Amino acid sequence: MHGMPGMGGAGFDPSKMDPAQLKMMLNMFSGMSDEQIKNSMKSFGIDLDPKIIRSFIDKMKNASDEELNKLKEQFTSGNVNMNSFNVSPFAKYEDNLKEAKKLMDENKFIESIEKCNEALEKIKSENCEEKDKEEQKKMKGKFYDQLTLSRYNSQDYDDTITDCQKAIEDVPLFSIYNRMGICYFKKGRHVKARDAFLKAKELFPNETDNIAEKYLKMALEEIENY
Q1: 101-110 residue pLDDT tens
Q2: What's the topology of domain 95-225?
Q3: Which of the residues 14, 25, 180, 214 has the least number of beta carbons within 10 Å of its own beta carbon?
C-alpha cells in the first residue's frame, strides 16, 4: 500500500482478515492524514475526496459482520466499490457535526452555532441527484437539531424559538418542535408551548419524549389555572 510504512506486503492482506481484524484495520486508517488515506485507498481502486473516504471508513467501523465480510470479498476481488455500501454523499459533513457537538460540550455555544450554520449553507447549496435528496434532508435535520440544541443550552430562549421556527419550515423534526415548546414554556407562553408539543405528537405519533410530556402536562395545568 502506498504511503503506509509497515502496512504493505504479505503482512497486510485484507482479503484474509476476519471482521474483527478488518475493524482494527479501519481504526488504523482513522488515525491517518487525509493524504495518507487517499494514497492508501488508491491501491484498492478508490480515488475520491479523502473526506468521503474517511466517512466511508467511519461507517464501516460500525458495520455488521455481514457488511464487513462483503468488504472482505471486494478486497479479495481487487474491486472495492464504495457505492455498493450506500455511502451518502453528505457523509462528509459528519465531522463538522461532531465538531459542533464538541464545541457545545465545551460551552462554546456561539462557535457551535456558527459551525452548524456554515455547514447548513454548504449542504443547501449542493446540487445532488434526486436519489440523494432524502440524505440531504437528513443531514440538514442533524445540523438543525444540533444548532437549536446549542442555542437552547446557551439559555437564549427567544433566539432558540426563532431558530426552531426556521428549522421546521425546512425540515420538521420531533425534537425541534419539543425544544421550541420547552422554550415557549420557559418564556411563560403556555398556549404556544402546548401547541408546539401537540404538533410534535400529531406529526410524529410513533415518537416519544418523557421530558416534553412533562412540560406539556405543566403547560396544560397553567392554561387551566389561568
Answers
A1: 999 999 999 9
A2: 1.25.40
A3: 214
CB 174 within 8 A of CB 204: yes
Domain boundaries, the chain: 9-85, 95-225
Is the pTM for the entire model greater than 0.85?
Answer: no
